[in-house]
Amino acid sequence: MKVLLAGATGAVGRPLTKALIAAGHEVLALARSEDSARAVVAQGARAVRADAMDRDGLLRALDGLSADAVIHELTALAKPRRTLDADDPSTALRVRGTAHLLEAAEALGAERFLTQSMALGYGYTDHGDRVLTEDDPFGVKQGGVADFVIDGLVSTEEQTLAAGGIALRYGLFYGPGTWLDPAASRLPVPWDGGGVMAWIHVDDAAVATVAALERGTAGRPYNVVDGHPATWGEKAHGRRVPGWMLRLMVPYLGALMIDTSLRVSNARAVEELGWTPAYPA
What we know:
Blueprint: E1 2-6, H1 13-22, E2 26-31, H2 34-42, E3 46-49, H3 55-62, E4 69-72, H4 89-108, E5 112-118, E6 126-132, H5 147-162, E7 166-170, E8 172-174, E9 189-190, E10 196-197, E11 199-201, H6 202-215, E12 221-224, E13 230-231, H7 232-235, E14 240-241, H8 243-249, H9 251-259, E15 261-264, H10 267-273
Parallel strand pairs: 1-2, 1-4, 2-3, 4-5, 5-7, 6-15, 7-12, 8-11, 9-14
Antiparallel strand pairs: 10-13
């Protein structure tokens, strides 16, 4: 397939570009800057200079092009923001960016559309020992700072699924280029190790995304997690800090690391996509 990929230079986008090309697909990669364009070309993709948040400019850049699929992997998660609000960049990319990319898909004649969602959409709360599936309520708010993240996840999923696309509910990313890059990250974690979380290595996320592109059922969400939940203390290598200090430094991290305990099943993705994590734990 010919695939338009938005977010090709991100933590998931880089291994995804490699995985798509290895699977025989042609990649058209959106690039906002000349540096980004050079980076995607170096990976073997064709650069399309456009900003997904600029609807008119995006459609002009795609005029005369065609594609079989569009994959939305755009976020602004380079580092945690201290505060979140309705203007959060990642939320905007999930709300308006999704709308623009769906228009782009129509203009390109693409029949497949995949979007990046997150398992955190099940709610920033303690879910106990229960393992959640795609049939559980999604978009659950707790009345806190993380509600703005929920708004973005619900928006991109609703838009995508209504258009017959596929939503990929990734676990928390770890691996190169993420908050939990073993070579660089020193993300602080609570003294007690924090809550249990559903995780996914970025390379596994990329392979699962290719599988969803090729074999996923239109109009369905898929949990993309490694199936072995672990605490933040087991994954992160940063210094331990008291919970109250973590909340004071970055309130969102308090909701994410302390308030949330999340176990998620990957059974649907394993069964329907024929995908198995290479990093199971």
